[in-house]
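S.,

Sequence below, as promised.
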Amino acid sequence: MNSQSGLSGWINMMGRILIILAGFRLFVLAVHGSQEFNYYYVNETMNWTNAQAYCWSNFTDLVTIADDKELNEILDNLTRENYSDAEIWIGLKDINMTNGTWSNGETFTYRDWNKGEPSNNFVSCGTMYYHRNETNHNGTWNDCGCRNNKTFICYAVKRKFHAVNTNMSWFSALEHCNSNYNGMATIRSEREEWHLLKYLNGTNIREKVWIGMRSSRVFGFWFWMNDDPVAYQNWVNDSSGAIQDNQNCATLDPNQKKWVRQGCAEQAQFVCYKDN
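The prediction came back faster than expected:
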């Protein structure tokens, strides 16, 4: 090989690498709620307890609302389907003047109470106001007696996790997930991680599990094997930086609730995912 052809090959290789890097930057986008969850408005009145039981049986749970973006998405869905104005059950329970919890156990951080609410002197459940043609307190929340009958909104997680209680290398685990499911599990947000940890808690897996993330050996950036955006990371001790001792693959530790770097040839159990 002469020097000119060698230089040409090197330039072509670097060009391909730059294209790949540009592609990964395009995937670093905020995750919108609809990528993780489907919402279902049930236009039938029930008390809060029966509404939750209905959601458990048919979907995942009564809807939780994590931020303004998710709230607006739900309201847009209701408007698009031309539903009438309503006061709708959501997954808020155990409301006591200033506090409350989500029925599925998620941390209660986001709040959108209507002015003066919550105001019930007794422990109550949560509703959301929907006004199709108004902006005034559309989507705001109210505390309501749990025995009242209201329509309600359920949600379902789009991806179902499947834990494999067999130790494999990361590469073997990836091949198993790709061959039998829809790939190795990815974690696109704090809420999706919460659902995965909740799922693992119901299994007999207590050790670290492979997830579908690895790093570039040359450049050190992390990426999901299915090209999901790297919009969320949760490394133990902020260990996502420079390559450390050839630990180029990622595990989720259910005990620490953090991600841990690990050598790809090591053995671990793993989690695949499948779409609903």
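The longest helix spans residues 3-27.

Coffee later?
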